[in-house]
Amino acid sequence: MSAMFRITLPDGSVREVAPGTTPADVAAAIGPGLAKAALAARIDGQVRDLNRPFEGDTALALVTARDEADALELVRHDLAHVMAEAVQHLFPGTQITFGPATDDGFYYDFAPKDRPFTDEDLPAIEAEMRAIIARNEPFLREVWSRQQLIDRWTQQGESFKAEWAAELPEGEELTIYRQGEWLDMCRGPHMASTGKLDPAAFKLTRVSGAYWRGDQKNAMLSRIYGTGWLNKKQLDAHLLRIEEAAKRDHRRIAQEMDLFHLQSEAQGSVFWHPKGWVMWRQLEAYMRRKLDAAGYAEIKTPQLMDAKLWEASGHWGKFRENMFVVPDEVPGIDPNAPVLTGKGDLMALKPMNCPAHVQVFRQGIKSYRDLPLRLAEFGCCHRNEPHGALHGIMRVRQFTQDDAHIFCTPEQIVAETRAFCELLDAVYRDLGFADYMVKLALRPDNRAGDDALWDRAEGDLREALTLAGLMEDRFQFEELPGEGAFYGPKLEFHLTDAIGRTWQCGTLQLDYVLPERLDASYVGADGERHRPVMLHRAILGTFERFLGILIEHHAGRFPLWLAPVQAVVATIVSDADDYAAEVAAKLKAAGIRVETDLRNEKINYKVREHSLAKVPNLLVVGKREAEEGKVALRTLGSQAQTILTLDEAIARLAVEARAPDM
Fold first, then answer.
1. Which among 507, 345, 485, 499 has a CA at the least distance from the CA of 437?
2. Is 456 a catalytic residue?
3. d(CA 178, CA 139)
């Protein structure tokens, strides 16, 4: 008789089962309700198929819809396979490539036989997917050899799959998943059958182009995106969020409010208009005041620097493909000769500020008494992002960071990190983001320094978070094993916006490597040279992206201190034009950003137009207001108006328009 396997359940109880038993069998033995609810199994922490037999003694936890993250991953993976089968059934000759789950759905890349797919194809594909779900086909896992895979894909005319299979290592366990007659290479896991999917809980959303293996030298494929959920209620809520996000799209609002524009002659760079630049300047001035108060010294460093510096810092080898490289030579003006000879030394536009900040630190001899030294820069940087990756002002090629680097002793790490966390918390609260998440990224496999150094560094960051009060439940603190940088652990701060989306903006990274590479040192109390620890830190991340987040978070209805136009004085009759000009002049003298609307239009038309333009305050004046020295004040979003004397209105708006730190 074969030895029995011991299966330990989450409550600590142990069941002995025979070889060949599956997690589905254990679920059925516990009860019919669990057998129906189980979607997969977590075996020693790893999610596996419900019908995959146990391979030995193990800890078992059954995955149900209550384990939402795992359940959604399964659902979306299954939907990708179902979609691929549906497409190949409807469009014979289409080749398949890859189709992963994503944060809110799934996609699959196809090589169509006749034409690229379009959005008009999606309803038919959805209907075919529902038919496959209704057939309740089991997902069956099979182990194949590499040669079996190559032969299968070659026979089927699947050249992309055959190419990939030929590159897989020999001797590795390779698996396929089958649903009915259709199959795909896949590591899994999957749910028990297609019938476990809710046919009303998914939607195909769009079609786009994608290069095979992400390389523009390769074939162009058709990528079909979908979103998938556990039930229709979740799907409807997601679609509502998408609809709301479209209304809040920063590109759309920027056009309506005349904030900025983008154009092909400057890919990934922003043309800021006067109103948008007002917002930038307000945000920059606010951040400068906060940094000044926190003891930072602001500096300015070059944008174009010799490649030798980037080689010394290590960025040239690891980051060069994302840098704009410039030859240090005078361009030729002979129309019959090359513009550049290629003989000049190479320089590069800086993609980050840190090596330049080390150069400032290295000027003169530094003592331990000079530390901590906090160097800040609103530094303009450039990164050579692919055109297809650019997105409005959220992802650009030219950007300005609210960057700073703190040079300190190892003993000062906790205090400096705590102070940074408290500064970040104050800024986020001022800017309307009291809800944010804190994550600690821990040591990766490939790292500098020994375990003792990492133990201390990670411990210092945990201690600082505790002292700053950021380990409380409301910050949803999470540790991310293996996601730290090569040179040290890092903190990440993820904002939550008005419609529940999260954005990673702030960061603090410990760095023991760059000071060593660029020979930064200070003289310690012992008279010897020591390496400082370098804390890379940012709160906003980049001004461009953070302003994009603010635009979408507020849907253009900015807090008064940030609004590009804070008030408009609108006339009812032309007799009030002179008084409107007087009101505007006094508001401007009080520091209010104000415009006048003296057009010969009905007042209701003006009110509607300025409401659509999201002007926070409308001061309506007519003949009576002019005679009495008053204004009718309307605030954005309110149907009511308040009659105030001009002095009262100015005093009220002056208070409301103050920046949150003033």
1. 507
2. no
3. 6
pLDDT of 2 reads 63
For 551-601, the DSSP string reads HHHHTT---TTT-S--EEEEESSGGGHHHHHHHHHHHHHTT--EEEE--SS
CB atoms within 10 A of CB 146: 16
**Nearest partner of 361 among 204, 522, 498, 484, judged by Cα:** 522
Clarify whether 401 is annotated catalytic: yes
| For residue 1, pLDDT beyond 60 | no
Establish how many alpha carbons lie within 13 A of residue 501's alpha carbon, considering only the half-sphere containing its beta carbon: 19
Going by their DSSP bridges, the two strands 297-298 and 373-382 should be labelled as parallel
Residue 629 sits at φ, ψ, to 5 deg, of: 70, 40
- Given 403, 425, 460, 497, the catalytic residue: 403
Catalytic residue among 401, 412, 509, 566: 401
Q: Confidence class of residue 3 from pLDDT cuts 50, 70 and 90?
A: confident
* Whether residue 331 has pLDDT greater than 80: yes
Tell me whether residue 405 is one of the annotated catalytic residues. Answer: yes
Q: pLDDT value at position 389?
A: 86
Give, in order, the Cα–Cα distances in Å from 202 to each of 100, 137, 439.
Answer: 15, 18, 31
- Say if residues 566 and 613 touch (Cβ distance below 8 Å): no
Nearest to 493 by CA among 441, 451, 545: 441
Q: Copy the structure tokens of residue 612.
A: 């659509």
Q: Which of 383, 443, 554, 614 does the annotation list as catalytic? A: 383
DSSP reduced 3-state for 467 = helix
Which of 536, 537, 606, 634 is the catalytic position?
A: 536
Catalytic residue list contains 383: yes
Report how far apart, in Å, the C-alpha atoms of 83 and of each of 77, 122, 154, 373 are: 10, 10, 22, 56
CB 207 within 8 Å of CB 225: yes
403 belongs to the catalytic site: yes
CA dihedral 236, 240, 246, 249 (to 10 degrees): -130
Phi first, then psi, for residue 180 (nearest 5°) are 65, -130
**Residue among 48, 439, 447, 490 flagged as catalytic:** 490
Inter-CA distances, 32 with 25, 27, 36, Å:
11, 8, 6
Give the Å distances, CA to CA, from 267 to 271, 318, 353.
11, 24, 22
> Which of the residues 49, 248, 354, 398 is marked catalytic?
354
- 439 catalytic? Reply is no
Task: Count other C-beta atoms under 10 Å from residue 598's C-beta.
Answer: 16
Residue 552 burial (C-beta neighbours within 10 Å; 0-12, 13-18, 19+)? buried
The predicted-structure confidence for 48-67, as pLDDT tens digits, reads as follows 999 999 999 999 999 999 99
CB 234 within 8 A of CB 500: no
Q: In terms of Cα–Cα distance, which of 93, 86, 110, 95 is closest to 208? A: 110
- Whether the predicted model's global pTM rises above the 0.85 cut: no
490 is annotated as an active-site residue: yes
Which run of H or of E encompasses 374? strand 373-382
Of 294, 244, 268, 173, the residue nearest 497 (C-alpha): 244
- For 231-291, the DSSP string reads SHHHHHHHHHHHHHHHHT-HHHHHHHHT-EE--GGGTT--EE-HHHHHHHHHHHHHHHHHH
What is the distance between the terminal CA atoms of the chain, rounded to a whole angstrom? 80
32-40 LR contacts (CB < 8 Å, sep 24+): 34/62, 34/64, 37/62, 37/64, 37/65, 38/62, 38/63, 38/64, 39/63, 39/64, 39/65, 39/70, 39/71, 39/74, 39/191, 39/192, 39/196, 40/70, 40/74, 40/189, 40/190, 40/191
Q: Which two tokens stand for residue 285?
A: 């001035």
